[in-house]
Hints:
Layout: E1 3-7, E2 10-13, E3 16-18, H1 27-42, E4 47-49, H2 60-69, E5 77-82, E6 84-86, E7 92-94, H3 98-112, E8 117-122, H4 131-144, E9 147-153, H5 157-166, E10 169-175, H6 187-194, E11 197-201, H7 233-252, H8 257-266, E12 272-277, H9 281-288, H10 297-303, H11 317-320
Parallel strand pairs: 3-4, 3-12, 4-5, 5-8, 8-9, 9-10, 10-11, 11-12
Antiparallel strand pairs: 1-2, 6-7
Amino acid sequence: MRTTRLSDGLISPAIGLGCAELRTDDLTGDRQAHAVVSRALDLGVTMLDTADVYGPELGRNEELVGRVIAHRRDDVVLTTKFGLRFRPDGSLWLDSTADWARQACRESLRRLGVDHIDLYYLHRRNPAVPIEETVSAMADLVRRGDVRHIGLSEVSSETLRAAHTVHPVAAVQIEYSLFTRFAEQELLATCRELGVGIVAYRPLGRGILTGALTAASDLRAADGRRQSPRFQESNLDRNLALAAHVRAVARKIPCTPAQLALAWLLARGSDVVPLAGMTRLEHVEENSKAADLTIPAELLAELDHLADGVAGDRYTPEQMALLDS
């Protein structure tokens, strides 16, 4: 797979692998995760993204990723995150203090079984903590050799600028897809002005852009997407109609809808890296081919205004309050 320069010194594959949904609950899950990640690395999908809060229990996903890459560490651009914490009652709070940045990094290094993290993100920022305090601590981690590059996730342009004055920010991770384009209003321009790469999570619109979801009945009762306004009642009907348009465009190329969604993001600029969640080997094979796909200009234009018709916020009001700080 071709590579891209996200920022000075940070080279990434054109497409990364989001590891959050890899199973961590039994030996079968371990074997499946090992097969998926190994095949991804073979195909050049070498950026692996995890976080300390991913998994059924704190740190479980990091531990899984650590086991899977134990014999291929040099092949991997390893990224993880800190800043989201859970109280004993399961409620969420944000901790972006300097002390937690240092402690969380130590614990992530231990769980991952590595001596350094290639890209370390602040997962969410607590607005009560000056971003300069957090980034100063992250810069100390770089100086210690525990971290190679630092990143931020779901922040405003103002926060990014303030952070960048303390230490260069290598990448901002943001939700970005055919259906989610708010980053184009200001943040992308700021990233490009500062030389900061863009890592696009949920590039497949939480699965709606793959074509696999065609009706509300396709969502299991426990599916977390049911909590998102975009996947509720009339909003979902409207969004599924837009997804059908994506499938129609994909047939013209021809390619799969997922490949089209990833290739569309790659066409937004060489500094944009889609981070696709892949849990099955066939997904790895399919999605990796998007890096070589070219979408004709007239079809890009046909897709360009789809996001204007998307119905519903991407998160609940409580979750939306944690964003763009």
